[in-house]
Amino acid sequence: MGIPLDVFSLYSLRDEDAGCGHHLLVRVGRPAFSNADEGEYAAALRAADAKRDALLEAYEAGALAAECAGRHTATLAGELQSRPVGDALSGERGGFYVELWVAETQFGSPWVVMGTADGEEEFWREVEEDEDLSGLRAYRPARRLRAYFLAGEGDETGGGV
């Protein structure tokens, strides 16, 4: 059985003409599915993708348009299918900016470890204390960035891998 889990997707949005860049972090819940049923798995992925696309569109039409009217290209910059470091991204619907630490993992793009912490050393300490996150074998250093955070309605599954 594929468990329900929260998927955190980090997007980079760029407007080459204006020379600007922005980040969006979205959390969507991927529903449970039967491992024996390929159709259920595909449906679970489609459901999560649809929620993610809707949040990206809402950000582009709302907060991003209010800040920067240019035409932006969105690129997936990272994904975490586990609980991130810190409490700032749990249980919240979003609609605010977060200071985020992001580190690439041995598994390559798009897999990252991310979260909120007061400093990089605190971030790494929390990563090392979490069996799931430490198992991803993230590389130092982590980079710090500011991202707008949005979460789908009801998307706090409590799941993780």
Key traits:
161 residues; alpha+beta; six-stranded mixed beta sheet; 3 helices; 27% helix; globular; disordered C terminus
Compact summary:
The chain is an alpha+beta fold and 161 residues long. 27% of the residues lie in helices and 34% in strands.
Structure description:
With 161 residues, this protein is an alpha+beta fold. Helix content is 27%, strand content 34%. The protein has three helices and six strands, in the order E-E-H-E-E-E-H-H-E. The chain has helices at 38-67, 120-129, 131-134, and strands at residues 5-15, 20-30, 73-80, 94-104, 112-115, 143-151. The chain has a six-stranded mixed sheet with strand order 3-1-2-6-4-5. A hairpin with a 4-residue loop joins strand 1 (5-15) and strand 2 (20-30). The longest helix is centred in the N-terminal third of the chain and has 30 residues, at 38-67. The chain is globular. The two termini are 13 Å apart. The model is unreliable at 157-161 (pLDDT under 50).
- Major beta sheet, strand line-up: 3-1-2-6-4-5
In this structure, how is the largest beta sheet organized?
6 strands, mixed
* Count of individual helical segments: 3
Which shape, going by the Cα principal axes?
A: globular
Q: What integer is the average pLDDT? A: 90
pLDDT < 50 stretches: 157-161
Level of helix content?
25-40%
The count of DSSP E runs of length 2 or more, i.e. the number of strands, is: 6
User: In percent terms, what proportion of residues is strand?
Assistant: 25-35%
Beginning-to-end CA distance, first to last residue: 13 Å
Helix-strand pattern: EEHEEEHHE
> Cα-atom Rg, whole angstroms?
16 Å
Class computed from helices, strands and strand pairing: alpha+beta
